[in-house]
Write a structure and sequence with these properties.
alpha/beta; 2 domains; 4-stranded parallel β-sheet; 8 strands; globular; disordered N terminus; GH; Glyco_hydro_79
Length: 216
């Protein structure tokens, strides 16, 4: 394995030097188009000149909402890896985040548009209840609830490891979404998102960006 990549053992995580390795691979790909199959070619890489610079937070990873019951074709890959089920005291998780920092953790995914935040007054039609598999529902799930205790615990980990967060908000709160058709009606109700953002800002949690995307 190249020196630019680390190794993984049970006691310690050594994170790849992604930027250096990525730059080398990018330059190699640029030159690759000039090669003729089976032709001997010498490749020289000028590492003394910077051709582009990215922000320290350019590197990003996503924590998704899928529960353990999410399966495809008989395969259920998520197990305890979802945001609500992740073991936040796992030392390998902490070491991995700290090793990648500074970088951005995106908290989001398809089910972000079902998640209700347990803060402030909620709509009677949008209770804060756990995800329940429902094949006839939008995205095959109903419910979805982020308790503030869980949000507090997540942010303790984020702050301890020095990462920033990009959080995907529920863009369908208060809207009709009871069928499997990827269509919704009625206006968005921003109250739950506003209360959640206020809660987050009051505690100075490291949310770098808020995502509100009508991609469904």
């Amino acid at each position: 394995m190249p020196d630019s990549f680390g190794t993984l053992d049970k006691k310690k995580v050594q994170v790849p030097r992604f930027k250096e390795a990525g730059r080398m691979m990018m330059l190699t790909k640029l030159e690759e188009s000039r090669f003729v199959k089976n032709e001997h070619t010498r490749l020289f890489i000028n590492a003394s000149r910077i051709v582009a610079t990215v922000d320290d937070h350019f590197l990003c990873a996503t924590l998704d909402w899928w529960p353990p019951s999410k399966c495809n074709y008989g395969w259920c890959p998520w197990d305890q890896a979802g945001i609500l089920d992740l073991d936040l005291e796992n030392p390998m998780l902490e070491q991995a985040l700290a090793g990648l920092a500074p970088f951005t953790v995106r908290v989001g995914g398809t089910l972000q548009d079902l998640v209700v935040y347990d803060v402030g007054e909620l709509l009677s039609s949008e209770p804060c209840v756990p995800f329940t598999f429902n094949e006839s529902a939008l995205f095959s799930y109903t419910g979805g609830c982020l308790r503030m205790k869980r949000w507090d615990d997540l942010n303790q980990l984020f702050m301890k490891t020095g990462v920033s967060v990009a959080f995907g908000l529920n863009a369908l709160y208060g809207r009709s979404k009871s069928t499997t058709q990827i269509q919704v009606t009625s206006p968005w109700n921003p109250n739950n998102a506003e209360n959640f953002i206020r809660y987050t800002q009051e505690r100075a949690y490291p949310v770098r960006a808020w995502e509100l995307v009508g991609r469904h």
